[in-house]
């Protein structure tokens, strides 16, 4: 009886548990602050945090640099304070919170690709067939042929609409995205072999949705255990040892991989993610979809969604190690 009481006391959440939770939540918060700061630096000319640690810039730039640094520090401090004040909060609650963030990011990305694929496909079809001036007028038709105009005045509103829809719809929509890829490919076959009609935007649409399918579905596949695992020893581990492997694997392998994608892809104006987004890069096909720059952004969506899901995975593993119930039933101890 005494031993059971001691075990229960040992499993009660304490300061150590709160710090483990703060560590995961701080990494997630820092990721989103990094993305926002990247936007401020390369789209609006803010100085970034580097001037704080180097030569003193002019007064206004120095203030902005300190403001951006505070964007990293203040959320971390707030998270630490909140987690220490809520030491009884279980790991599963924070894991579920990060899982919800992942679900929202993926849902918003799915609806964005769906709306943009349909609308941009229609615009490209009208442009190829010379119908754009008749529908929108000559001036607007010319503007819709410019990638930056289409990106700002067509794609961006559709992405905002997708963000709103994602608040109410967070199902496994990438399953429907797989169907859309098949439908898009099927209409190419029908148009080519029956009507002898094919345009560049048709193949672009397949590639656009196909890339989204594989990159956006990765986080859910991680939750469902669908990723390929070279399973030689893991199957025979105890639940506690499996949790230990998952915790260390998430922090030492998964999270650094995601941060590497973001850091390298957003290191400068000419980097692999920033450059296409900054200049609204398009394919060389001329009359194809104007979505190539968005496909570079898919890498950022992949990295962020996998980052938050790895951290949720880590918290679930810590729940098992600390004698608590994880948020995902598939990870529950037997």
Mean pLDDT: 86
| Number of β-strand runs | 0
Alpha plus pi helix count: 14
Which overall shape is indicated by the principal axes computed on the Cα atoms? Answer: globular
Sheet bearing the most strands, described? none
Strand content: under 5%
What is the element string, with H for helices and E for strands?
A: HHHHHHHHHHHHHH
SSE-based structural type: mainly alpha
Cα end-to-end separation: 23 Å
Radius of gyration: 24 Å
| Count of spatially separate domains | 2
Uncertain stretches: 1-10, 330-334
The level of helicity is over 70%
Task: Describe this entry's structure for a reader.
With 334 residues, the protein is mainly α. It folds into 2 domains: 1-89, no CATH class; 90-326, no CATH class. Helices cover 75% and strands 0% of the residues. Helix 5 runs antiparallel to helix 14 and helix 11 runs parallel beside helix 14 (292-321). The radius of gyration is 24 Å and the shape is globular. Residues 1-10 and 330-334 have low confidence and may be disordered.
């Amino acid at each position: 009886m005494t031993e059971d009481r001691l075990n229960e006391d040992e499993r009660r959440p304490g300061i150590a548990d709160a710090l483990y939770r703060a560590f995961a939540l701080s990494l997630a918060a820092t990721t989103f602050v990094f993305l926002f700061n990247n936007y401020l630096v390369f789209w609006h000319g803010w100085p970034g945090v580097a001037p704080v640690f180097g030569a003193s810039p002019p007064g206004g730039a120095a203030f902005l640099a300190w403001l951006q640094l505070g964007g990293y520090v203040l959320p971390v401090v707030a998270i630490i304070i909140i987690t220490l004040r809520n030491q009884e909060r279980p790991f599963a609650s924070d894991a579920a919170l990060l899982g919800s963030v992942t679900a929202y990011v993926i849902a918003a990305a799915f609806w964005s690709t769906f709306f943009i694929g349909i609308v941009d496909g229609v615009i490209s079809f009208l442009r190829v067939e010379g119908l754009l001036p008749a529908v929108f007028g000559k001036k607007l038709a010319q503007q819709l042929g410019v990638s930056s105009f289409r990106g700002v005045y067509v794609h961006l509103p559709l992405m905002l609409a997708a963000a709103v829809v994602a608040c109410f719809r967070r199902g496994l929509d990438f399953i429907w995205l797989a169907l859309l890829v098949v439908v898009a490919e099927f209409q190419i076959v029908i148009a080519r072999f029956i009507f002898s009609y094919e345009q560049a935007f048709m193949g672009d649409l397949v590639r656009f949705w196909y890339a989204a399918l594989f990159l956006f579905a990765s986080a859910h596949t991680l939750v469902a255990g669908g990723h390929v695992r070279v399973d030689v020893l893991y199957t025979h581990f105890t639940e506690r040892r499996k949790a230990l492997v998952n915790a260390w694997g998430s922090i030492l392998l998964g999270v650094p991989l995601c941060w590497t994608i973001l850091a390298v892809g957003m290191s400068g104006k000419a980097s692999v993610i920033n450059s296409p987004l900054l200049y609204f890069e398009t394919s060389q096909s001329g009359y194809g979809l104007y979505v190539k720059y968005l496909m570079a952004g898919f890498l950022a969506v992949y990295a962020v969604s996998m980052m938050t899901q790895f951290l949720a995975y880590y918290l679930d593993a810590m729940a098992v190690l600390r004698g608590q119930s994880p948020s995902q039933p598939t990870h529950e101890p037997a």
